[in-house]
């Protein structure tokens, strides 16, 4: 075992101080597991990770070639931790929140050694809570200070944008989702003062959230749609027909009919079941196109809900739409775990719909779910006492995702563990090393794959998310200053 | 998942004769007489440098007689390379094959010229699967995301017909192209396609659909109807609830008169696996060729699992008076094992289940020496893998003794410097370890061996016990092999399922 110490302790005073960002000393133990040295041939993809700030004050992006897990690029970003990461549909350009009033851009794949990196300053007196790049040449930033959506206008060909104020949206916008095909998006707002209430006491929040309809073609908003309490995440089916918003405060899913820009008339809300009196606490979801199922990671009940959301060819809800097909117990029926929790934070499915992978923040594992059996068939441990909260999948194919790989990030570790589906094993690299599956510097705040879900030329990005969104602030900082601070730790 | 039923002996013979002579022995560009076709993803490797998914994929031809490629650079199907292959359909009796691609497209392959024939007959976007009927006329595509079954009549200039069906997941067609059944996920109903006669096209126009039809298209003058399988006048939901439990696919009986509908049971969000017998006559594809009516009650074959066992059915194949049914049974929460039941269709009784390889049995193929070969995927999370005991994804059944002759048993530690235990001497297999999903099986009829794709590589075994490994050094591929078929087989009998089955 090897123990590394991180001493990045720093407070930043921002010019328009929306909040102060801090990192804390973290200890990590690295367990040696031999990685593949003879990699299978996998699609050309990159995994991109962002980091917390180092002792020198900067955060870094680390780009890994999936085929071989080699480090192909490490690049410092601006000062402060990266608090949010987004890639566009090509996977070649990305953006990072470097503190609420600073956004960095970077080119990911066009020039691996010297791709452009630069800083974009959002409009003054604004604070960015999230970023969204649904397609190439498109960037939206959510401003929680003035409750606006900021529109990015491409500036040159190196991935830079100029951010400009757009229309107002609901209070505390936390994410966007929608259909890149029609340019119709929804800005998800919690309608509560910017803070951590929806993370820590979502069921005590009384205000209902809202979705503001945003037409990207004209850059304007077109009304609102009521949501449940504490919406924390939304995603859209790749056919652009339905959006699903997770309301953590209500244990429900708001279903939006995207073409009609309103709630789904047949099934406006899907209620998630409580388990043994525990709230479900939905925090993240995955849409499986090959089966028409929605997979929900329920933080509080330690379950995954499998929901039928199949449509017919006319775009109408199918006969089984809204049915909870399964409530998968991440403990597999074992009730003898007093005081212990899994606390699932994110979920990713293989594109062939065969398996799903759940990062469990509290018990430091990845649960492998067989989606044919709807049961947990394996539990893969993370090393180093790290607490995962993001996962990104890259697959060789949609029909049989034999050689899919999944990369995991945990904010209290500098390794980027990965799961190889074909072997059903997890690799926990010792870091720092030269294998490439480590953050070049700093701990890993988030990870994304250049092929967001499946290596298709028609890849769409239908969701935005900052790592840890919706989860309680319960790791190394008991009293976070604000939402991003909560999510960053 | 779209499948072709296993043909009856008579239909196979008819088909072979109908096609004139098959194509064995003809001169081909490759010069190979006993050709094995291997679908390969990323044959040139893709490490570093270029954008996502450079278009480099191939269909390679090997010589089954010599177990080698005839040239150092393997001959390939010309005109192919811009798609990622997913699975192969073998129509050797017609001199054609079909490659289903990851992007939803499908291409016909002319075995004579070893070239792509025509343009895309599949979809423009990813689908669950597609299948071409044996008469090379109807291309049927299922798409859960699209919520439809699409039928393209290749003898017509009309555009494909899209039939509305939420959860459309698979279709099964039979030799002779006389029946096409359709299935939907999370549904208890079995559907069948009906190609309308000119009279009914007029009669069913503008929504005047026949009883039990769920859609007839085109709306103004339909050419196809999608029908629910139920007796005339019956309550479809009640009838289906009684006789089906989340059906997933069907195979045909050896007599050709009955269809065996497989009920997925616990492996398809249902309760328990079983088989329902449906007469083929009433559900004929071509309008006017149907015979008889759907009876008010259907025979169900129950499996002989102990009471309280949770189990499902994934696949089956008929041989003589026996129906071999494969699936998984639950050992404990999160732990499942592979099982094979043998049903005597003359009595309807099932044998006690036998252990086979864990995982989902996606391939079942009959081969020389009265053997049945079963290829599974996801055996690496089955009972044996979880117990830390050797495991594999390939099973060989000796049909003469009605017993399992081989379950591959090996495992690897994830360390490239360590060889694996087990019986496999092929070093290719051990690169990086792994548990060997079997995604393709091709019996080399007459040569007493079977080619199969396991863990992304081509392997060969003998069909005579103990089913020893044949050196595959001459046919290993660079990249990831995903499927294999015997182009010069005497029949189309190359498996009951494509690799799209989940």
Tell me what you see in this structure.
The complex is a heterodimer of chains A (489) and B (502). Chain A has 489 residues and is mainly β. Chain A has one domain (2-487): Methylamine Dehydrogenase, Chain H. Chain A has helices spanning 197-200, 483-487, and strands at residues 2-6, 10-11, 22-23, 26-30, 46-51, 58-65, 70-79, 84-87, 93-97, 103-107, 117-120, 128-132, 139-143, 148-154, 161-168, 173-179, 184-189, 208-215, 220-229, 231-236, 242-247, 252-257, 262-263, 269-271, 282-288, 293-298, 303-308, 324-329, 344-349, 355-360, 365-370, 375-381, 390-394, 405-409, 418-420, 425-427, 444-449. In chain A, strands 20, 21, 22, 23 and 24 form a 5-stranded antiparallel sheet that branches. Chain A has a 4-stranded antiparallel sheet with strand order 7-6-5-37, with no helix packed on it. In chain A, a hairpin with a 4-residue loop joins strand 6 (58-65) and strand 7 (70-79). In chain B, a hairpin with a 4-residue loop joins strand 30 and strand 31 (449-454). The N and C termini of chain B lie close together (8 Å). Chain B contains 4 helices and 34 strands. Chain B is mostly beta strands and 502 residues long. Chain B has a single domain (2-486), classed as YVTN repeat-like/Quinoprotein amine dehydrogenase (Methylamine Dehydrogenase, Chain H, 7 Propeller). Chains A and B meet through strand 32 of A and strand 11 of B.
């Amino acid at each position: 075992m090897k123990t590394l110490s991180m001493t990045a302790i720093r407070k930043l005073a921002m010019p328009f101080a929306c909040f102060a960002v801090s990192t804390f000393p973290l200890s990590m133990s690295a367990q040696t597991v031999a990685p593949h040295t003879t990699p299978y041939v996998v699609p050309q993809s990159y995994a991109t990770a962002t980091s917390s700030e180092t002792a020198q004050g900067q955060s870094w992006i680390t780009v890994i070639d999936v085929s071989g897990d080699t480090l192909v690029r490490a690049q410092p970003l601006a000062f402060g931790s990266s608090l949010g990461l987004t890639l566009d549909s090509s996977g070649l350009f990305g953006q990072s929140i470097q503190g609420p009033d600073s956004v960095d851009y970077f080119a990911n794949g066009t020039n691996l050694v010297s791709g452009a990196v630069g800083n974009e300053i959002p409009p003054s007196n604004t604070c960015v809570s999230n970023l969204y790049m649904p397609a190439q040449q498109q960037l939206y930033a959510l401003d929680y200070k003035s409750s606006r959506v900021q529109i990015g206008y491409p500036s040159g060909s190196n991935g830079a944008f100029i951010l400009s104020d757009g229309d107002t949206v609901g209070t505390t916008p936390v994410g966007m989702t929608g259909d890149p095909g029609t340019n119709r998006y929804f800005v998800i707002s919690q309608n509560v003062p910017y803070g951590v209430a929806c993370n820590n006491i979502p069921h005590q929040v009384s205000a209902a959230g809202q979705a503001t309809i945003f037409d990207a073609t004209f850059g304007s908003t077109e009304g609102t749609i009521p949501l449940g309490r504490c919406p924390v995440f939304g995603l859209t089916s790749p056919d652009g027909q339905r959006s699903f918003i997770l309301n953590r405060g209500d244990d429900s899913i708001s279903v939006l009919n995207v073409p009609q820009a309103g709630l789904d008339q047949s099934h406006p809300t899907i209620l998630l079941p409580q388990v043994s009196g525990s709230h479900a606490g939905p925090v993240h979801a995955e849409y499986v196109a090959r089966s028409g199922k929605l997979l929900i990671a329920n933080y509080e009940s330690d379950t995954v809900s499998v929901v039928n959301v199949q449509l017919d060819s006319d775009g109408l809800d199918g006969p089984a739409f809204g049915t909870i097909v399964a409530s998968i117990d991440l403990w597999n029926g074992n009730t003898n775990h007093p005081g212990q929790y899994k606390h699932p934070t994110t979920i990713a499915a293989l594109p062939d719909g065969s398996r799903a992978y759940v990062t469990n923040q509290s018990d430091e594992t990845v649960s492998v779910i067989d989606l044919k059996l709807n049961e947990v068939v394996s539990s893969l441990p993370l090393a180093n006492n790290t607490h995962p909260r993001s996962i990104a999948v890259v697959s060789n194919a949609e029909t049989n995702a034999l050689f899919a790989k999944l990369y995991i990030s945990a904010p209290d570790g500098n390794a980027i563990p990965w799961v190889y589906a074909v072997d059903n094993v997890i690799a926990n690299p010792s870091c720092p090393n030269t294998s490439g599956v480590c953050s070049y510097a700093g701990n890993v705040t988030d990870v994304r794959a250049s092929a967001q879900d499946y290596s298709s030329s028609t890849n769409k990005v239908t969701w935005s998310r900052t790592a840890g969104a919706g989860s309680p602030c319960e790791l190394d900082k008991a009293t976070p200053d604000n939402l991003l601070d909560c999510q960053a730790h | 998942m779209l499948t072709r039923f296993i043909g009856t002996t008579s239909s196979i013979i008819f088909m072979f004769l109908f096609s004139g002579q098959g194509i064995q022995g003809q001169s081909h560009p490759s010069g190979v007489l006993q050709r094995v076709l291997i679908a390969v993803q990323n044959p040139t490797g893709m490490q570093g440098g270029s954008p996502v998914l450079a278009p480099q994929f191939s269909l390679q031809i090997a010589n089954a007689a010599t177990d080698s490629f005839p040239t150092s650079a393997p001959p390939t199907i010309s005109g192919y390379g811009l798609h990622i292959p997913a699975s192969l359909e073998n129509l050797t009796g017609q001199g054609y094959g079909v490659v289903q691609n990851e992007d939803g497209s499908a291409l016909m392959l002319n075995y004579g010229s070893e070239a792509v024939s025509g343009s895309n007959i599949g979809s423009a976007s990813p689908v669950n699967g597609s299948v071409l009927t044996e008469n090379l006329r109807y291309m049927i595509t299922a798409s859960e995301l699209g919520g439809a079954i699409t039928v393209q009549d290749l003898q017509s200039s009309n555009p494909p017909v899209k039939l509305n069906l939420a959860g459309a997941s698979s279709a099964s067609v039979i030799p002779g192209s006389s029946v096409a059944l359709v299935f939907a996920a999370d549904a208890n109903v079995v559907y069948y396609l009906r190609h309308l006669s000119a009279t009914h096209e007029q009669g069913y126009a503008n929504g005047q659909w026949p009883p039990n039809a769920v859609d007839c298209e085109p709306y103004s003058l339909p050419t196809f109807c999608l029908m629910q399988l139920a007796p005339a006048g019956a309550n479809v939901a009640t009838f289906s609830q009684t006789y089906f439990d989340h059906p997933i696919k069907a195979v045909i009986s050896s007599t050709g008169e009955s269809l065996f509908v497989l009920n997925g049971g616990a492996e398809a969000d249902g309760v328990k696996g079983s088989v329902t017998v449906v007469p083929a006559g009433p559900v004929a594809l071509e309008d006017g060729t149907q015979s008889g009516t759907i009876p008010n009650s259907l025979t169900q074959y129950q499996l002989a699992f102990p009471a309280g066992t949770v189990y499902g059915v994934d696949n089956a194949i008929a041989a003589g008076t026996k129906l071999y049914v494969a699936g998984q049974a639950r050992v404990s929460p999160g732990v499942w094992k592979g099982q094979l039941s043998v049903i005597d269709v003359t009595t309807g009784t099932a044998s006690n289940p036998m252990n086979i390889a864990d995982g989902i049995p996606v391939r079942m193929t009959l081969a020389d020496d009265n053997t049945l070969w079963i290829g599974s995927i996801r055996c690496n999370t089955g009972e044996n893998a979880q117990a830390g005991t050797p495991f594999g994804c390939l099973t060989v059944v000796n049909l003469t003794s009605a017993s399992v002759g081989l379950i591959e048993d090996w495992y690897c530690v994830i360390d490239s410097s360590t060889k694996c235990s087990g019986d496999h001497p092929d070093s290719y297999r051990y690169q990086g370890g792994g548990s060997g999903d079997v995604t393709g099986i091709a019996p080399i009829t007459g040569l007493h061996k079977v080619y199969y794709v396991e863990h992304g590589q081509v392997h060969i075994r003998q069909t005579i016990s103990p089913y020893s490994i044949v050196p595959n050094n001459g046919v290993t591929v660079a990249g990831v092999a995903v499927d294999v078929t015997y182009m010069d087989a005497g029949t189309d009998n190359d498996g009951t399922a494509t690799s799209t089955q989940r």
